[in-house]
Design goal:
It holds the Pfam family FtsK_alpha. Its main location: membrane. This protein is α/β, with parallel strands linked by helices and about 800 residues long. Strand 5 and strand 6 form a beta hairpin. Helix 2 runs antiparallel to helix 4, helix 7 packs antiparallel against helix 10 and helix 12 packs across helix 14. The chain starts with a helix and ends with a helix. The N terminus is likely disordered. It binds adenosine-5'-triphosphate.
Length: about 800
């Protein structure tokens, strides 16, 4: 009976949990297993009739002329010999059943958890039956198979016949208790209930109307026959908690208490788990059927730029070391320090592309500050610009003196992009800046920075640095994964990226140029980015995740429904070249949204890179600085500038040409920025731009400025010629957005915006509502006609 209940439960547990294969593959595998199980079944059964005839053929399997009597010929004879004769005897049939069940599980895509249990029990049965038959029918070894026979033999050698019998008895008890959930009181109840049912049947035969309909009958029963049974019946009706006392007359009712008496709690827990699983199963099933969502699919044929688009800049081997120069510098350092009575215990040189680091361990008792103060003297004696003393080198306990090489080696972008460190970088937005002083490629994750401030006097390598950042991302990221917003007031530095507008750039709806050169447009873009940020936070909140990475992972696993507004979110990188210019002209209007973005945008994948020539405090204000932990300083002209950008000096001692300091907190790292020339950028953008692209640049949310949409007073005569058409479009679509008018009537952004203002003045659309489309106040075209004709009266 318990088995019956189990079956019923296992049936109800049929869930759509996947087995890691696609549905088609599961059907194929399932049918293969079912057919195999049938083949084995026929082989095994016929083996018992044909084994003697086929025995001689076992060694001649490959001989095509020989024919076996087994229903499945030589295959059947061989496999049966192996599984039945040498294996488990007649119990091997269980194997065919297990295979068949497994096949059905696959075929019907059932949950595999129960399957594993079935196999375990199947094997237990096989071993027990084999052992039992080996014991009981030891004169017929085919029944128990070699396994049963040998096991018996082995056990009997140690425990004798009685011992084996007791072992078998224990095995049987184990199976009865664990598999059939048999308990002595359960059995007693079962038999009592059967007895009671029989008794009531007998009674039912004499008095067919006496069953559970009237209390008078019950009292009668009570008087006449088994009082216990009737007691239970009345309890059962009134007090369900006492059901377990005695079963009632009806078979159906008897089964209920028996079920509750046995291991029911565990079963109910399983049911709860099942419900939880089903939620996930929908996405698991989607993933199994269609695979994970692939955001790159729309541009599936996109080819990443190849390395040969980059120039090696004449550097083929590593850095060439001038041994003489090294010795010379070393001697000069030692001598200068000696002049100031500073003894050196040890000196070591690390040769970098632009500078060589001399690491010295001073003799015991030398004060570090003394060496630090000798910076100018050492520079003088070495007759070199750009000496930087790091005392002490963090984490090393030595003092570093960086001396520029006479012949600096260019670090080509090609070499850093090709480096395994960059190629293998498992970062969200990896950037290969260049090489450190020990000639290691320096790769950082923009997503971790999360915003970057870049400063340097004119001609020191800022634009090259920005190009290095953009190139790194272009080499690592698919157009679906990252979008750039480029602000270039100088109008010349970033123009080349126009070619990849429809792949990698994002812009405001309706703007013609993807690269922003106009300062007023920057304000709109920044505000639009703030709207995008708020929208993304809403999406993250709805998805119950903390950042864009988790969000996108969840979306790819098809756990977020696009119908609820969820979509794959690309990273957005905003690059502003010449920030000083912008802040001078727009001031607070720019500073406020930038500060807001810098404070909040890290989690939702919007990252800012700001470059400026003048790192003065009125450009890099406190609020901006506080939110840009990653700073890069190219050579600046004064110590004050260095302090403003890095909070430390040193940038004034750089040698220019891409020599830079990078800090992201405390440590300052000197890096030679990778050099990528304009023709190389042109080649890369050309390569990408010539490939199939999205229909348009990535569209940012619409932002119309704070003062728009209020106090509008348009004369009817001043209305746009397409006013009525636009009104019809808006009313038909019931969506008050300027971009809709733009698309439908093929207008520019400004004109569409004006029309929207006129529609608002006419009371056709509601006021501006931030990122949302305006409300349409007119329900249909008839109402619109009426409204417009009323106006004319
Ligand atoms: N990493 C580098 N390696 C070698 N040379 C470099 C590097 N960076 C810049 N240079 C040299 O310096 C020149 C000026 O660089 P870049 O145009 O980047 O300066 P900038 O700081 O952007 O100047 P501006 O602010 O006037 O635009 C480049 O043309 C190049 O010759």
């Amino acid at each position: 009976m318990a088995k019956k209940a189990r079956k019923a439960r296992s049936k109800s547990k049929k869930s759509r949990r996947t087995l890691g294969l696609s549905k088609q593959n599961k059907i194929i595998l399932g049918s293969l297993l079912i057919l195999l199980s049938m083949a084995l079944f026929f082989s095994f059964v016929s083996f018992y009739f044909t084994w003697q005839d086929d025995q001689s053929l076992l060694t001649e399997f490959s001989d095509r002329n020989e024919e076996a009597k087994n229903l499945l010929n030589k295959f059947g004879a061989s496999i049966s010999h192996f599984v039945v004769y040498k294996g488990f005897g007649i119990a091997s049939l269980i194997l065919t059943i297990l295979l068949c069940i497994t096949g059905l599980y696959f075929f019907l895509s059932l949950e595999k958890k129960g399957l594993f249990k079935k196999w375990i029990w199947g094997l237990v049965f096989m071993i027990w039956i084999s052992l039992a038959l080996g014991f009981l029918a030891d004169t017929h070894p085919l029944l128990g198979g070699l396994v049963g026979y040998e096991m018996n033999d082995f056990l009997q050698d140690y425990t004798g016949k009685i011992g084996v019998f007791l072992i078998l008895l224990f095995g049987l008890t184990f199976i009865l208790v664990r598999f059939f959930e048999f308990t002595p009181d359960g059995a007693a109840r079962y038999f009592t209930s059967k007895k009671a049912a029989l008794a009531s049947n007998r009674k039912g035969g004499t008095d067919s109307n006496s069953t559970n309909t009237s209390s008078a009958d019950i009292v009668l029963d009570n008087e006449e026959d088994t009082p216990v049974t009737i007691d239970t019946y009345t309890h059962k009706k009134d007090i369900p908690s006492l059901e377990d006392e005695k079963p009632a007359k009806d078979d159906f009712e008897v089964t209920v208490p028996v079920e509750e008496e046995t291991d029911e709690l565990a079963m109910e827990v399983e049911k709860i788990v099942e419900e939880e699983e089903e939620k996930d199963n929908t996405s698991d099933k989607l993933v199994a059927d269609f695979g994970e969502f692939d955001p790159t699919l729309e541009l599936g044929s996109y080819k990443f730029p190849t390395i040969d688009l980059l120039d090696p800049h004449g550097v083929t081997g590593g850095i060439t070391i001038n041994q003489e120069e090294l010795e010379d510098n070393k001697n000069k350092i030692v001598e200068t320090l000696k002049n100031y009575k500073i003894g050196i215990a040890q000196i070591k040189a690390t040769i970098g592309p632009t500078v060589t680091l001399y690491e010295i361990v001073p003799e015991a008792g030398v004060r570090i500050s003394k060496i630090k103060n000798l910076e100018d003297d050492i520079a003088l004696s070495l007759a070199a610009l750009g000496i930087r003393i790091i005392a002490p080198i963090p984490g090393k306990g030595t003092i570093g003196i960086e001396v520029p090489n006479k012949n600096a080696t260019i670090v080509s972008m090609r070499s850093v992009i090709a480096s395994s460190k960059f190629q293998k970088a498992e970062m969200q937005l990896p950037i290969a800046f260049g090489k450190t002083i020990s000639n290691e490629t320096f790769v950082v994750d923009l997503a971790k920075m999360p915003h970057m401030l870049m400063a340097g006097a004119t001609g020191q390598g800022k634009s090259v640095g920005l190009n290095a950042v953009l190139t790194s991302l272009l080499y690592k990221k698919h157009p679906a994964e990252v979008k750039f917003i480029l602000v270039d007031p100088k109008k010349v530095e970033l123009t080349l990226y126009n070619k990849i507008e429809r792949h990698f750039l994002a812009k405001l709806p309706g703007s013609d140029e993807a690269i922003i050169t106009d300062n007023t447009k920057v304000i709109n873009t920044l505000n639009s980015l703030c709207i995008e940020m708020d929208d993304r936070y809403e999406l993250l909140k709805a998805a119950m995740v903390r950042n864009i990475k988790e969000y996108n992972t969840k979306f790819k696993a098809r756990k977020l429904n696009p119908n609820d507004g969820h979509k794959f979110l690309p990273y957005i990188v905003l690059v502003i070249d010449e920030f000083a210019d912008l802040i001078m002209t727009a001031g607070k209007e720019v500073e406020t949204p930038i500060a807001r973005l810098a404070q909040l945008a890290r989690a939702i994948g919007i990252h800012l890179i700001i470059a400026t020539q003048r790192p003065s405090v009125n450009v890099i204000t406190g609020i901006i600085k506080a939110n840009f932990p990653a700073r890069i300083a190219f050579r600046v002209t004064s110590k004050i500038d260095s302090r403003t950008i890095l909070d430390a000096q040193g940038a004034d001692q750089l040698i220019g040409l891409g020599d830079m300091l990078y800090t992201q907190g405390n440590d300052v790292t000197r890096i030679q920025c990778a050099f990528v020339d304009t023709p190389e950028v042109a080649k890369i953008t050309e390569y990408i731009g010539s490939q199939r692209a999205y229909p348009d640049a990535h569209e940012l949310p619409e932002y119309s400025g704070e003062d728009s949409g209020t106090n509008l007073d348009y004369e009817i005569a001043d209305r746009d010629a397409l006013f009525q058409e636009a009104a019809e479009v808006i009313v038909t679509a019931q969506q008050g957005s300027a971009s809709l008018i733009q698309r439908k009537l093929k207008l520019g952004y400004n004109r569409a915006g004006r029309i929207v203002d006129q529609l608002e003045a006419a009371g056709i659309v509601g006021p501006f509502e931030g990122s949302k489309a305006r409300q349409v106040l007119v329900p249909d075209l008839a109402a619109l006609d009426q409204l417009l004709s009323n106006e004319l009266k």
